[in-house]
């Protein structure tokens, strides 16, 4: 079994690569999806968040109010550290269980499993994968795409980019880089080439 970590900054097209892999029949563990599931009512992570930040982060129906949580968590470095500790820890636990389930089903052969995680490099998940794929786009093109997609101002976009690991550091830690500055066909061709290499060279 090989586990491939797929990551990339906001606006690089990581989700496009993830969807393409899923369409080709590969199993994807979506860290963002797991991050949403761990804060549903009754989940231990939500209870821990309420214990730390107070019941004010809940809506009247008992669900998490993400806006109020963000206001509380980003008010101090301690709050942000607590948020990361609780949520990242819960997500990683779920990822570990899903990897174990996949290994039990597929055995230890040449099956491929992908972990799609924006914070793959920041949370320690990189140590759990065989290779790291980074989807990359030059910053100006990135901003242009985010502007069109989300309707954000340049200042808002730059603020979101600053919250993530720098492009340079991601590229330095990548085993393979997918350049998404061209067409979809060009991007997909790069993915196919990497898949062919994984199947053919015993990595």
Main beta sheet strand tally, sense and closure: 5 strands, parallel
Strand content: 5-15%
Domain count: 1
Straight-line N-to-C gap: 10 Å
Total number of strands: 5
Poorly predicted tracts of residues = none
Mass-distribution shape: globular
Helix share, percent: 40-55%
- CATH homologous superfamily descriptor: P-loop containing nucleotide triphosphate hydrolases
Q: Identify the CATH architecture.
A: 3-Layer(aba) Sandwich
- Total helices: the number is 9
Strand arrangement within the widest β-sheet reads 2-3-1-4-5
User: What is the H/E order?
Assistant: EHEHHHHEEHHHEH
In round numbers, the mean pLDDT is 91
Rg calculated over all Cα atoms: 18 Å
Going by helix content, strand content and strand pairing, the class is alpha/beta
CATH topology: Rossmann fold
What would CATH call the class?
Alpha Beta
List the keywords.
single chain; about 200 residues; alpha/beta; Rossmann fold; five-stranded parallel β-sheet; 9 helices; 5 strands
Descriptive overview:
This protein has 203 residues and is α/β, with parallel strands linked by helices. The chain has a single domain (2-196), classed as Rossmann fold (3-Layer(aba) Sandwich). It contains nine helices and five strands, in the order E-H-E-H-H-H-H-E-E-H-H-H-E-H. It has a five-stranded parallel sheet with strand order 2-3-1-4-5, sandwiched between helices. It is globular. The model has no long low-confidence stretch (mean pLDDT 91).
């Amino acid at each position: 079994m090989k586990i491939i970590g797929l990551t990339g900054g906001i606006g690089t097209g990581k989700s496009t690569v993830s969807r393409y892999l899923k369409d080709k029949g590969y199993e994807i563990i979506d860290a963002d999806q797991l991050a949403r599931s761990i804060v549903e009512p009754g989940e231990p992570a939500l209870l821990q968040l309420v214990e730390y930040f107070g019941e004010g982060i809940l809506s009247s129906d008992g669900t998490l109010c993400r806006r109020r949580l963000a206001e509380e968590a980003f008010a101090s470095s301690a709050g942000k550290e607590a948020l990361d500790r609780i949520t990242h820890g819960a997500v990683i636990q779920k990822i570990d269980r899903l990897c174990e389930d996949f290994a039990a089903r597929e055995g230890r052969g040449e099956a491929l499993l992908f972990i799609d995680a924006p914070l793959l490099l920041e949370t320690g998940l990189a140590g759990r994968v065989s290779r790291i794929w980074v989807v990359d786009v030059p910053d100006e093109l990135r901003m242009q795409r985010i502007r069109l997609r989300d309707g954000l101002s340049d200042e808002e976009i730059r603020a979101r980019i600053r919250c993530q690991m720098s492009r340079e550091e991601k590229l330095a830690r990548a085993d393979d880089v997918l350049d998404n500055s061209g067409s979809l066909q060009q991007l997909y061709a790069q993915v196919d080439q990497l898949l062919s290499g994984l199947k053919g060279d015993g990595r």
